[in-house]
From TrEMBL:
Protein name: Uncharacterized protein
Organism of derivation: Methanolobus mangrovi
């Protein structure tokens, strides 16, 4: 044990300054200091969590880090010390406790685990602790402390109900997902890496623990399952085995299902029926499914019990158990006794209550099924039940099976009650795409006209059938295009689906016959939009022909963009598109409801019919221009602008009139396409600029903000919009808070402005110019974004920058730093801190760059961004500029109030300092040596060897 005078001297030193305290505890190597330090007040005041600006941090505690290092050397002493430490909410201190426990023998560690378990139960979030607690589970299990390992695992992996409250009433309800104390990734890692150690020692108790967790997950996932056995797991976990239908594999319920399955699978070979009893003794049907999975995989464990299950009526036709039951029967039917096989077939033959259940279900939804419908339903049910055992049928049953197969065809994924392709969970089709593909056009149209859905909420729907039709058409559009006119009188749900198929085919660059398709579109447009006496109360059937009109507009927009329509069909295409530009969607009521902070005008234009049509008009105009450019007199015709397409001009001018079309969504189209309006007819665009960006604030902002967000800064547009840019700069702070995140408008406005300056289109010396206005009126935050935008572009450019551009950028920088220096404000101006990006780009001559950096660091008290790259660049320049680089480094270091950043810079700092110390420049040497002295005084003793090396 150290002598009292040494202890007193050490305590006096560590109390002088924080850096001495940290250094002392970080370098202690003997546990003999623990008791005297404790007697002098140490190990009794763990640091509290620190909260600042909405963030919480957990400062490290050098005293507990020392105990961690001593835990393997003197575990009992460390244990007794930790147990006496007061309760703390500092996560890092608890991490040290757990790390110390890992270094102790398991029989000692359990005394600390008791304390940690109580603390874990009191926590809402464990942050980064689960990983080390998982290691403790393994440590205890391997060390024979099974019960403690189980208790820690149960506490750590616990799932709990999260309570929520209605805003209007103080009523607590359980949400749709349970609450765990840490990120699900950690949960998965513990199940994967640490649970196996617990299973080896705890065996069935580990399985019971997982079963309990799964029960809690089910109970807390939906309050309706609290007292029921039907948790509908076949929907959220279609297969107990690993399968691509299990689309939620990283959610808590799926993770625990897989863990229960795998542990049961591991234990069943040696523990047999006991495992089945644990699994099948649970209430919920999910466990029955796991039991069926195990019985299929391990048929020798309980063959009699399995045989009784397959002829149990409650199991035989339970949709919840369908998948696992199907696979079990398909694999084991031939192993059952003749008596069991006959009982199974008798249940199929008799179809007990199947027809009655169908009748009752249909009546419940208001349908009166015909006898033929009931009989057909029963036969299909029998067919499905025979499918998994078809290989084992005798001649009589095989003939019956083949008859049913002729009636109903091949079954698509019969092992699943519901099969979801491409991850889509939505409307169900009465026919698979293979069934539709087998029909000719007459049969298909007849089926679409005659089929009607039941009113069951989970049954097939027109929307589901329509989606299959869309996919079918997209696969092979040509034959459908030829016969397109025959689909005219179908329900709008199906005509929309047909046209959606052509649209999707276009996206895949597939060709088809356009004339009959355009003719069908024209006839649909000529029909009334509304359908008299049609009442649709769900989304499974189109309410009118409005959705079809929207698809037509989308179809044409894509076709014009890809140049897929023969140009001689220009008139036919326009005759289809023109009427849709007057579609009532969006109404003013629609925009009021869905616009504002919910959806920008530009997004509304994309998602509404008239908006889509106006966008298609722009594509139509560019499509025409493309073809004009291929003619012999192209220059003259291109210069004539809208004279070549007066129909476009008429539509554009009509909808520019706010008295005729006050829609913000439609007006945003003009803003989004303004550069292309200039391209198509610059004279027309100039004449209508004040109408596109009018005095009316709402209409103006709909077009202007859309232009700024969606368009790049084109040089030929600037002259037309110079006043608009000036006005925007004047009002740069006027956006409401809900508009800023929706548009990201201010950032784009800054980037437009600086891009034009980069290209030489704006002048920093113009007294009332756009750029002068910007740096005079824009908030400091936006001016900083401007400097950073240029810097990042310099840094990311892989090519050399033209000397004229660099000269222009230097002028901007010098103008701004001189302006800020002239203000002589006490507070630090953050506009220029991103000059670091300019500096690290290495695009400027080194002398200018380093001198500007030195001035900036002095002006900002060492603040610079990105500091890590700046210091890396300083290290590169230190060989040729040792004095400047070490001076800059010292200033940056002094600006770091808490000295947190230094740990990221150590290697490059050593290069800069070491180079200066070895240089022939006496001033550089003196500056570096003084800097090292300050580092050592601040407790960074790792730099003292640099002075030693120099002395040698």
């Amino acid at each position: 044990m150290p002598k009292p005078e040494i202890i007193e001297k050490a305590l006096n030193q560590i109390r002088k300054r924080a850096v001495n305290y940290v250094y002392f505890f970080n370098h202690l190597t003997s546990p003999e200091w623990i008791e005297p330090l404790y007697s002098n007040g140490m190990f009794q005041h763990p640091p509290l969590p620190e909260q600042e600006e909405g963030y919480i941090s957990f400062p490290p505690w050098p005293e507990s880090r020392y105990l961690v290092r001593m835990a393997s050397k003197s575990p009992e002493l460390v244990l007794s010390t930790i147990i006496k430490i007061p309760e703390t909410e500092n996560i890092r201190v608890h991490e040290d406790f757990a790390e110390a426990a890992l270094a102790m023998p398991p029989d000692l560690a359990v005394r600390l685990i008791k304390k940690e378990i109580d603390w874990i139960k009191s926590q809402q979030h464990l942050y980064f602790l689960p990983e080390i607690y998982g290691k403790l589970i393994s440590h205890l299990a391997r060390g024979g402390q099974v019960n403690y390992a189980l208790n820690l695992a149960r506490t750590l992996l616990a799932v709990n109900p999260t309570m929520r409250k209605y805003k209007e009433e103080n009523i607590s309800l359980m949400p749709s997902s349970p609450f765990i104390r840490f990120d699900i990734w950690y949960y998965e890692q513990i199940l994967k890496n640490n649970m196996p150690d617990l299973v080896i020692t705890a065996k069935e108790d580990a399985l019971k623990l997982l079963c309990d967790l799964l029960v809690d997950v089910i109970r807390f996932s939906d309050e309706s399952t609290d007292e029921t056995v039907e948790e509908y797991s076949f929907i959220w976990r279609p297969a107990i085995e690993e399968h691509d239908q299990n689309h939620r594999i990283h959610e808590i319920n799926d993770l625990i299902v897989s863990a229960v399955r795998d542990v049961a699978d591991e234990l069943i070979e040696t523990n047999g029926k006991i495992v089945l009893e644990i699994i099948e003794g649970q209430t919920f049907k999910l466990f029955k499914r796991i039991g069926l999975y195990l019985r299929r995989k391990w048929p020798e464990i309980d063959p009699d019990g399995t045989a009784n299950l397959v002829i149990n009526p409650n199991v035989f036709d339970d949709i919840h158990l369908h998948h696992e039951f199907y696979l079990l029967v398909a694999e084991q039917f031939d192993n059952f006794s003749p008596m069991v096989q006959k009982a199974y077939l008798d249940m199929i033959k008799q179809a007990v209550d199947v027809g009655k259940k169908f009748d009752l279900r249909e009546r419940e939804y208001g349908n009166q099924p015909h006898t033929e419908e009931i009989e057909s339903y029963v036969r299909r049910w029998q067919y499905k039940k025979l499918w998994p055992i078809q290989a084992f049928l005798d001649q009589e049953w095989r003939e019956q099976f083949n008859t049913l197969k002729g009636e109903f065809g091949e079954l698509d994924h019969p092992e699943f009650y519901s099969y979801f392709s491409k991850g889509w969970v939505g409307p169900i089709s009465p026919k698979a795409i293979e069934d539709l593909k087998s029909m000719n056009i007459d049969e298909l149209i007849s089926f679409l006209n005659s089929w009607s859905p039941s009113e069951s909420p989970m049954s097939a729907s027109p929307e589901g059938l329509g989606r299959q039709l869309t996919e079918l058409v997209s696969l092979e559009p040509e034959p459908f295009s030829i016969e397109a006119g025959r689909f005219e009188n179908l329900d709008p749900t199906y005509t929309r689906a047909l046209l959606s198929g052509f649209r999707d085919a276009l996206k895949q660059k597939k060709t088809f016959q356009w004339l009959p398709v355009l003719d069908l579109c024209h006839r649909i447009i000529d029909q009334t939009r509304e359908i008299l006496e049609r009442k649709i109360e769900d989304m499974d059937t189109d309410p009118d022909r409005g959705w079809t009109r929207k698809v037509i507009a989308d179809l044409l927009e894509i076709a014009f963009k890809l140049n897929m329509i023969p140009f001689d069909l220009r008139t036919a295409a326009w005759d289809v598109l023109s009427p849709i530009t007057d579609d009532p969607d969006p109404t003013m009521e629609h925009e009021e409801k869905y616009g504002g902070s919910n959806m920008s005008p530009a997004m509304l234009s994309i998602n509404t019919t008239r908006g889509a049509a106006m966008r298609a008009v722009m594509r139509y105009a560019l499509w025409i221009r493309k073809h004009i450019e291929e003619t012999t007199d192209s220059k003259e015709r291109v210069d004539s602008g809208f004279e070549e397409m007066p129909e476009v001009r008429d539509v554009l001018e009509r909808h520019l009139d706010p008295n005729l079309d006050p829609s913000l969504a439609i007006h945003s189209v003009y803003g989004q396409w303004f550069p292309w309006l200039v391209l198509l007819d610059e004279k027309w665009a100039a004449q209508n600029t004040t109408k596109i960006f009018p005095m009316d604030r709402n209409l103006h902002d709909a077009a202007w903000r859309t232009y700024i967000v969606y368009c790049k800064p084109y040089d030929n547009v600037l002259d037309l919009l110079r006043e608009e840019y000036s006005r925007a700069i004047d009002n740069i702070e006027s956006l409401s808070e809900d508009q800023k995140p929706l548009f990201n408008y201010d950032k784009n406005l800054v980037e437009h402005t600086m891009t034009y300056y980069w290209r030489g289109k704006l002048d920093i010396d113009e007294p009332d110019g756009v750029l002068t206005r910007f740096f005079t009126k824009a908030p400091e935050e936006f001016r900083g974004q401007a400097i950073e935008f240029i810097g990042r572009n310099l840094y990311n450019s892989k090519e050399s920058i033209d000397s004229e551009i660099l000269k222009r950028l230097k002028k901007l920088w010098e103008t701004r730093i001189n302006a800020i220096r002239a203000t002589k404000k006490d507070n630090i101006n953050t506009e220029l801190v991103s000059f670091g990006w300019w500096f690290v780009s290495a695009k400027f001559d080194d002398d200018w760059a380093i001198s500007q950096l030195e001035d900036l660091i002095e002006l900002t008290n060492g603040k610079i961004d990105p500091d890590h790259l700046v210091i890396e660049r300083l290290a590169e320049l230190s060989k040729t500029m040792p004095l400047f680089t070490v001076k800059c480094l010292a200033q940056i270091f002094e600006s770091d109030k808490n000295k947190w950043r230094i740990h990221s810079f150590v290697d490059h700092m050593r290069i800069i300092i070491g180079t200066a110390l070895k240089s022939t420049d006496d001033v550089a040497y003196k500056t570096a040596a003084e800097f090292v002295d300050r580092l050592l005084a601040s407790g960074y003793l790792d730099f003292r060897d640099l002075l030693t090396e120099t002395d040698e």
